[in-house]
Amino acid sequence: MSQIETFYEVMRRQGITRRSFLKYCSLTAAALGLGPTFGPKIANAMETKERTPVIWLHGLECTCCSESFIRSAHPLVKDVVLSMISLDYDDTLMASAGHQAEALLEETIQKYKGKYILAVEGNPPLNEDGMFCIIGGKPFLDQLKHAAKDAAAVIAWGSCASWGCVQAARPNPTQAVPIHKVITDKPIIKVPGCPPIAEVMTGVITYMLTFGRVPELDRQGRPKMFYSQRIHDKCYRRPHFDAGQFVEEWDDEGARKGYCLYKVGCKGPTTYNACSTVRWNEGTSFPIQAGHGCIGCSEDGFWDKGSFYDRLTDIHQFGIEQNADEIGTAVAGGVGAAIAAHAAVSAIKRAQHKGDQDS
Amino acid sequence: MNNPLNASSLDNSGRRIVVDPVTRIEGHMRCEVNVDENNIIRNAVSTGTMWRGLEVILKGRDPRDAWAFVERICGVCTGTHALTSCRAVEDALGIQIPLNAHLIRHMMDKTLQIHDHIVHFYHLHALDWVNPVNALKADPKATSELQQMVSPHHAKSSPGYFKDVQTRLKKFVESGQLGLFANGYWDNPAYKLPAEADLMAVAHYLEALDLQRDIVKIHTIFGGKNPHPNYMVGGVACAINLDGVGSSGAPVNMTSLNFVLERIREAQAFTNNVYIPDVMTIAGVYKDWLYGGGLSSTNLLSYGTYTQVPYDKSTDLLPAGAIVNGNWDEVLPVDVRDPEQIQEFVDHSWYNYEGEKKGLHPWDGETQPNFELGPNTVGTKTDIKELDESAKYSWIKAPRWRGHAMEVGPLARYIIAYASGQERVQEQVDRSLSGFNQSTGLNLGLKQFLPSTIGRTLARALECQLCADTMLDDWHQLIGNIKNGDSSTANVEKWDPSSWPKEAMGVGINEAPRGALGHWIKIKDGKIENYQAVVPTTWNGSPRDSDGNIGAFEASLLNTPMERPDEPVEILRTLHSFDPCLACSTHVMSEDGQELTKVKIR
């Protein structure tokens, strides 16, 4: 072997010493919440692994997932594409088109049977025999099923592939469905969000390449490493919620002071995602920090849960002690308006401390 | 009638070439052409191959939420639909936004323009001109000299730098896993760059990945994330707090404004030192390949953008207007509210209008999907080999301005601005043309040079420069306004739906990266009654209309010779110069959206 450039070689070539490389591996292990023994394992994988073939399909979608993916800062997307995976089919970025592109898809499937990762952005429409989304003269649905058959693993990028997203919002005119409705014999890793955070996308990929396995998933198929806590749990404005300090209307004093956005519709308390921890675009900011409430874009059916500016009233309770599975059960059980009560308690607290606030 | 851009003048008797999927675009598209015995394209058929029905989904929803739905029309031109939607709702309800919000929206809009143009050129379009495999033959030292010659101020120009890039590329190619570059057309004689220029461009492909990652952080500051930053009816949600209590946790403060300033400066440097020199280098080498003009030499449309005095369209940095029949001496006024001006036709689109072949203004748009193939189709309903363009053949409708098919986009904006006497644009264009003529020894006039594939690509680069430069002006104006004591970012007088009239209608317009964008809304009882978007790729990618007028994509491909008809390099090159965005182009809604749930199967 191997003229293939490993990730280790990439780093060395970029002037990283071996010592720094090993340090990077142990930091990566720590960042992923793994013990110190995993550092050497990561190093070994990065030194020796060849690039895993990836087929990236596009159904009904808006390409925001691809756009997010290329924003990844760590790892850099150029390192992912040149040195970690082999992106053998992706009609948004590939050089060839038409027959030559179709031939590549077939070649990759045949050559790497059972060994390639299938990444799906968007979803298939079922109405009109699938012809609301046509690839190569045929329904996207056919291409999706065909490519899924021999995949080692399937990644559902974003809320379209995971849940259906905007084209599946009422009345869903094309009958667009999430991919697990049509791929039923394979594990599917759901990475929801509209789009998902770039480093979450590349984090999932690097985890799989590094450890040779699928990350631990919650009951709904989402990696726990990124989707096990609500945005509210780790929000930097959470202390204002607890203190009963809210934005009452846009651009008021509270908005300028960075108070909690719950009363203007923030869905952070019911949204499982890493926005308040990983943040967006290399950690620059995230929606709440920029002054707008979370719209809950990584949640199933978030388009059909009322206005983005309606105050949440249907959530069981708070606390970072509960995971997604448990809260899911609670919500399914139809528990009432405890969040509002919680906010009321906060408001009482505020009243008690009113004198402190007018500073 | 002998109009060369009419279906009746086209010859579909020659060999049929099918390209599906057309790659390196947003969304799904198919293209079929006929070539004559000399491999010259004599007929072109462009087809939008997806439909999502977003406006149907909007019916009955809160107008204040619409921006988020329509933003998901497209994640590439992310934010432009959201902005246009906010404008439509504000127009309907009579809301005027504060100056700070106006400036911040402009900065966000220009950020998109810069990002979109750079990603388009380097990551979607460049491989139509640049041969990465040929870059392996380059001499890094000569590449370094070339780099220093075309852009003396670009820091990454040493022989060692290009050697590194080449080594990495070599290892990649030799691995046998060519990934995105596999099955490219790398031995096709249509590629003409010297190896050194290819290597320089490959290095910039990688540098542009870094730049695009950073420039969008302006969206992250003002809108919280990218793709799909947040917008808001009535202004912007990012409140300003420069020196009061809580400033360090506020969305817009001194550090975030400083951060934005740095990103603007990086974008200026990249555009001046890398993007524009690269386009000029390519234009110089491909000086004899001036195909692809199509409709741009006759019919152009722009709604105008970057209004400098809020709500005074006469102060648009890039003015509105229409040019027809190639008459640059007369820029015609455009009124998006006039039912006689903008109309959509569906004779060749997979929709039906009740009863007759008519054009409908967007406020009165109706849509009933009707997927049926013509009698000369080769293949079956779910396995199409060749389409029959005499019948319905696309999910895109055919919008027309006063009956004319129009080209929209950066080239349209630039020709209209030039013809309108916009000095900043005239200076940029004249400088580029004289640079081109000097380096090639040619003596082309503007009307020979600009309406072409390369002209379209150049206009995009010049616009990127204009946006970076004027975003700096916006930033300084924002600072000045705050300095004068105005920190307002939102007008909430009509936030509450109880303050709205029972019925209202409005229109929002913008110039998106790919061209003229309009959203038309009707509101009734606080809910959306009708929503219609007519987007740039609907104009450019439109199929034929009732009178046989062909759209910009189809027109641009005519008379282009192909080196090897089985390898669609030339087709991709010209289609990509429009930066097609198919997810954008294919939505529509009816007055009676309910019909859409009944889809006809034939």
TrEMBL record, chain B:
Keywords: Metal-binding, Nickel, Oxidoreductase. Transmembrane segments: none annotated. Its main location: other. InterPro entries: Ni-dep_hyd_lsu, Ni-dep_hyd_lsu_Ni_BS, NiFe-Hase_large, NiFe/NiFeSe_hydrgnase_LSU. PROSITE patterns: NI_HGENASE_L_1, NI_HGENASE_L_2. The keyword Oxidoreductase applies. It is found in: Cell envelope. Its cofactor is Ni(2+). This enzyme recycles the H(2) produced by nitrogenase to increase the production of ATP and to protect nitrogenase against inhibition or damage by O(2) under carbon- or phosphate-limited conditions. Heterodimer of a large and a small subunit. Belongs to the [NiFe]/[NiFeSe] hydrogenase large subunit family. PANTHER family: HYDROGENASE-2 LARGE CHAIN, UPTAKE HYDROGENASE LARGE SUBUNIT. This is Uptake hydrogenase large subunit.
